[in-house]
Amino acid sequence: MDLLFTMLVPLIMAAVALYGMARRVDVYDALVQGAGDGLGVLVKIVPPLVGLLTAVYMLRASGVLELASGVLAPVLGLLGIPAETAPLLLVRPVSGSAALGVGAELISAFGPDSLVGRTAAVMLGSTETTFYTIAVYFGAAGIVKTRYAIPAALCADLAGFMASAWAVRVIFYRS
């Protein structure tokens, strides 16, 4: 059984190549053309990604995230979200790698079995990097006006953050 799972991807690739050959498709040419199209998409999405990552690192280095976390702490308490996770809430919609860094800092500071550590872990798995995703997919499709996509996605992120905090409290800290 382990051999089957080890060979699954090569078997799928071979099956696709054989299917293409049976349909009289030049498989190598199709592969090269697809790779070229993929590089074209990469060229379109790299500039927005560089801008997003630069902005995130500037915010972290300047201390703006810590200041915003202090301002948001009372509101987060009312929503049932641990106030210590505020930097994660601010960074997660923008950058997955920065959010992983913040999550790792929270887990190392508070411990993996703490309310904050568990909530941070669930938040990382339950929410999306909204601006990154919009930059990649809308940029690749050439969409300039996002209209309601960003507000709707940010509302979904907030719901994910609240649901994460609620789920951790219900599962691990039920009285």
List the helices and strands and how they pair.
Layout: H1 2-6, H2 8-22, H3 27-62, H4 64-79, H5 86-91, H6 96-110, H7 115-126, H8 130-141, H9 149-172
Radius of gyration: 21 Å
Assign the structural class, choosing from mainly alpha, mainly beta, alpha/beta, alpha+beta, or little secondary structure: mainly alpha
- Output the number of helix runs: 9
Low-confidence stretches: none
Q: Given the C-alpha coordinates, what overall shape results?
A: extended
Q: How much strand?
A: under 5%
Order of helices and strands: HHHHHHHHH
Overall mean confidence score, pLDDT = 87
The first-to-last residue Cα distance is 43 Å
Major beta sheet summary: none
Q: What is the strand tally?
A: 0
Estimated helix fraction: over 70%
Would you kindly provide a written description of the structure presented here, covering whatever features stand out?
The chain is an all-alpha fold and 175 residues long. Helices cover 81% and strands 0% of the residues. The protein has nine helices and no strands. 19% of the residues are buried.
